[in-house]
Amino acid sequence: MYCRIRPSSSVSCTCSSGDRSSRASAATRFTSSVVTAIRIGLLGLYTPTKYEGPRVHTQGVRVRRLAPPAYGGYTEPMVAHRAFTVEAAHEMIPWVESVFERVDGHRQRWQKHNEGCQILEAMWSERIEAPDNPDHDEYLRHRRAMDDATRTVQGIIDQDLISRGVRLPAGGLESGIVDFPTTFEGRWVYLCWQRGEPRISHWHELDTGFRGRCELADEHTLVMGKYEELPDDAGLDF
Q1: Is 215 exposed, middle or buried (0-12, 13-18, 19+ CB in 10 A)?
Q2: Which of 59, 148, 160, 230 is least surrounded by Cβ atoms within 10 Å, i.e. has the fewest?
Q3: How far apart are CA 26 and CA 32, in angstroms?
Q4: What confidence tier does 46 reach under pLDDT thresholds 50, 70, 90?
Q5: pTM of the model
Q6: Cα separation of 235 and 238, whole Å?
């Protein structure tokens, strides 16, 4: 990127219809990319350890395949809902840590190129969209890199968390939180784990979230995820 400071240049506040159209187009593309990135949590950094995770065994567990709902142009993967026992969720922790670790580098890359875009937009405003702008190619390079990082992170989440039955709540990558669906007293609940915790020690109802976490007791460990007949999982939101 070439930084050009032109203190003597005057900036007009009058925009033609073409300029407004260009600005709207740029804003739409940028907003779409950022919204997707925010949704999957491309913010915040952590440093977990490596691990080649366990296979997810679903033998003997009723599996429900969900029709993939659309979300802002993105289609969620087919999800196999399973009821984790506390022990099975514990075994998944090293794998989830390794997923976060792989995502970290792509999040850093997204942040780096996002900062590059912001600098160029601050310098040129909507004029950065003009093909003859001297920094236009640099701007496009940043945008393509951001889109690539977003797609890569989303792919990792889909293949290595969601497809294994692990829920990533909104902002989960930024806060390092995942949920493992399980059953308790005839209903679905979530075992909740936050990055850095050595073991799963909390759970919460489907509608209470992280702030509604309760500590696991022996009575929970003995029965969670061990019902022969699973309740309807329509309330699970992933």
Answers
A1: exposed
A2: 59
A3: 10
A4: very low
A5: 0.67
A6: 9
